[in-house]
Amino acid sequence: VQEKGFNIDEPAPVPEWNSTSDPRHNITTRNLLQHTSGLYWTETEDENSTLLRMLFIEGDMGHYAASLPLTNEPGSVWEYSTGNTMILSRIIRQQLGDKDYYSFPYKKLFYKIGMNSFILEVDASGTFVGSSFFWGTARDWARYDWIDQTVASSDGYGGGRYGFQFYL
């Protein structure tokens, strides 16, 4: 965000929401980070959930999540959504380009704190599954926890226990 001069309070750069007549056009990157996008989502493991469909059926997870309808005004309701995380992962890929995108988490985060065996999986479109499908040693996960403990809370979303994409 800092390196690219990206404003998280402007409408998120999501192709499916380009039309200003689309109510999803008002969803900001901050809304996605704080899980207040207002997009329809079922974060359950029942057979009809959007979560399971996205993770195990859809090839382009970010596109699937971005294609869902709006059910709440952006910024009005906190609801954890793996779909928001996939939209964010796709935005980062679009902003950085593939070469920088694939090296970014390793160069800027994992290798800097010694997470040398950490692996991030991608969906069929090549986008990191930013919500899950991370693999690493116990030592890597302990180092990951160091990151989690350094993230500041964001305005009390999630009962005050949730920051930008991290439970606190």
From TrEMBL:
<dbReference type="InterPro" id="IPR050789">
    <property type="entry name" value="Diverse_Enzym_Activities"/>
</dbReference>
<dbReference type="InterPro" id="IPR001466">
    <property type="entry name" value="Beta-lactam-related"/>
</dbReference>
<feature type="domain" description="Beta-lactamase-related">
    <location>
        <begin position="2"/>
        <end position="141"/>
    </location>
</feature>
<protein>
    <recommendedName>
        <fullName>Beta-lactamase-related domain-containing protein</fullName>
    </recommendedName>
</protein>
<feature type="region of interest" description="Disordered">
    <location>
        <begin position="1"/>
        <end position="23"/>
    </location>
</feature>
<dbReference type="InterPro" id="IPR012338">
    <property type="entry name" value="Beta-lactam/transpept-like"/>
</dbReference>
<dbReference type="Pfam" id="PF00144">
    <property type="entry name" value="Beta-lactamase"/>
</dbReference>
